[in-house]
């Protein structure tokens, strides 16, 4: 092949490679993504109770650990729903909730028995979402709509006047269940159709 | 149908024709149920906010007196259904899906049935807020099924940015067995039309369409006559073909107006408001007669009743008493159903009160309604999709609901399902489809609630963290300031001390020097005088020295 006919395309390709290389290089510095976006995505799926039952000091650190490849089944407040969502996001296998960190439960909220409260403000300092109202030597109370049910205020209370109670009454918690699954070895014969009528 | 009843309508694309079974309960006119000895009145209407109690145990109340006041907004006020004494406030089972007990008032009737009515209003001279206030005071909620507070619906319509142009009156009553609205229209058509006029006065729409299925000819005649009597050009009666579920809100609106309500929106957004015919009757009683909602028409039917019919029942009457008044054959009775056979609830027993939303009780036998046969596998026949009035894909929704793929179910518009039961009715495998949808819907709602809560908590946590950091920073800053201040003060003090100290030392030095000099002077003088006793001379000279030492 004649080198004179080969030269223009080689030069053109080289030129293009340089231009795109420079563009990519610029884009890599100009549009650099700060932090790990995966951590935020994972954090979005966590229930944000900030309870620390997973062993990390809050939901964000746990999200960080998941992003680094840690187990996804350490969050009892999120339960099966959160594990399912995380497994889908990360494309990993779904696991059962790690019982070591607690069991899935209905949403609970802290309740201060106000007559017994001595106004020490210890629970106020422990609350991660500022859901407890009160001041020194005055009775404290929990703002129910803000309480995540994280449990963190129970332990610091010197007079044990905080209870964790269900956020809703049984009637509000009730909802329709799926029909019971069909027994695996069920034999149906044609006359079953009129089963009721024949009785 | 004859010419005057004909109106334009848009046929429903899908639906079913179950056996109607309506004639049994229509043989007799509406009967008044006997006054019960004891009534049970729940403070909460299923799915709504609990009303605030305003009576105490032992209190004498009259019929129509407020027992519990609805909270502003969505609350529904509860009235005494008859005169008597409040005997207890306790938990009691009510006809709800969960079967869980609710807080109820027990009312012992005194047999006098004494009314406490509000003054009647002349609706033509009342403005909308006044009429809505009256409807609220009388505790009226939708009597068709869902029980939405009527005053909240009307207020919402007035507050909405879309003006209501069409008022739809739901008189379709499409579900088999139920004839409560049919009987009411047959006998109380004038009262119903008065109620419609009151709604027209409140909403001022361009037109009002009354939708009725063509299987109630006597009610159609009565209603047409009543409409003709008021002679309002805005009101027209539209007779639609019988097809279940034409009485579902969105389906009826489509049939009457051709408007499809977009998914996820309410009818008010399309400028349409729908009211059940029973509710309209209650509105007329409340405004024109000042009567609170204390009674309703309940259909009692089913093969286990020897004398089925429609009864005018006080709210809170135990269902067992109603069954007795219809001559129940206890040996035949197999199941009790609250509502219709397609959307109704099976009741555990008859010791449950009638609620404001109880339109029908079916006491059935095994021959009439055989117990459900076991479900078999889905064979993907697609019959369900052929009958779904919301034009969904029930079979697909079934798979998603079963495998808990909630996002997929939602993207297939699970939330548009009206739970009418048409799909389960035609399913050849007898799969209880609606149960799956209900469960999936509830889970979806729960997930959404959780997500909202999580977002809210995250915001608060982030704020909490930011606040703590700010506090820490401020504390740090204050500490640094304090340290700086302390350092400054110390330096200033040191400087002052140095100056003061120097002068003091200088003073002391000069004093001491002076003393020494004086002593030296005295010694010299004594030496010069040649004293013989050195003791007495040395002692006075040494005395000032310690004095000057202590001074320094």
Model description:
The complex is a heterodimer of chains A (199) and B (552). Chain A is built from 7 helices and 4 strands; from the N terminus they run H-H-H-H-E-H-E-E-E-H-H. With 199 residues, chain A is mostly helical. In chain A, helix 2 crosses helix 3. The longest helix of chain A is centred in the first third of the chain and has 28 residues. The termini of chain A are far apart. The mean pLDDT of chain A is 85. Chain B has 552 residues and is an alpha/beta fold. Among the domains of chain B are: 160 residues, NADH-ubiquinone oxidoreductase 51kDa subunit (Rossmann fold, 3-Layer(aba) Sandwich), CATH 3.40.50; 136 residues, Fumarate Reductase Iron-sulfur Protein, Chain B, domain 2 (Orthogonal Bundle), CATH 1.10.1060. In chain B, the strands form 4 sheets. In chain B, strands 1-14-13-17-15-16 form a 6-stranded mixed sheet, sandwiched between helices. In chain B, strand 10, helix 4 and strand 11 form a beta-alpha-beta unit. Chain B is elongated. The N terminus and C terminus of chain B are likely disordered. At the A-B interface, helix 7 of A face helix 12 of B.
Kindly list the characteristics that best describe this protein.
heterodimer; A: 199 residues; mainly alpha; 3-methyladenine DNA Glycosylase II, Chain A, domain 3; Alpha-Beta Plaits; two-stranded antiparallel ribbon; 7 helices; elongated; B: 552 residues; alpha/beta; Rossmann fold; Fumarate Reductase Iron-sulfur Protein, Chain B, domain 2; four-stranded antiparallel beta sheet; 14 helices; disordered N terminus
